[in-house]
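Running this now, will post back.
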Amino acid sequence: MPTTRVKKFAVAAAAAAAVAAVPVAATAFASDSTPAVSAAVKSPALLAATQPVAASSKVVSQVVGSGVVDGKSWSVTANFYPTFPAGFKVPAKADKGLAGKSLLCRQTVIGGVRVDHQGGKWSGCQVVNGTSDIIGTGAGLHGLGDKGLTGIRIFMGNPDAKVTRAVITLQDGRHLKADVQTLPGTNYRSFAIPLGKGQTIASVDQYDAGNHRLTHDTFWR
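Update: finished.
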């Protein structure tokens, strides 16, 4: 389950299958001591997260990142639905002030298992207002247990337009890096960095195209 500081409205329905997607772009991560893992890895997790969708859904899809960490495949896929897809319903407990008729999904798979799959088909999704809603920004740690605090975890950030890359500094001094990917046709941007078992975050920094540090957060673990 993920732990997050994003300002978002997370929605869930009762379906049990993962959201399908067609990858159109990808990224990789690197550390100072470990070569970057190719985003083209045809891992079970990547395949599970990127099955074709019906053309009528008009979903825009992108693989934010993928690779292997601690021997397990991982992937993060972003999907944007201009209008609510068939089968999606806003929960009755939704904020009455919620505006938007689009759906933005960023879903994480580790070792072939989708994070928060217990929440149904639409876990990891947000109701947004079109292609450039500010509600789509933020960051969070995503894992299969302990709310993303232990085991293999994926740090996913959804930064604003100035950020082009992110760097995680671990407690042991190593650095993990990822470039920001923009979901085509939208202003929604994401990056994904995997953390292996026992790795602890000292800081998360975000940089612009001129290599100027824009943010420096030390509250992540």
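The CA atoms of residues 1 and 147 lie 4 Å apart. More later if anyone needs it.
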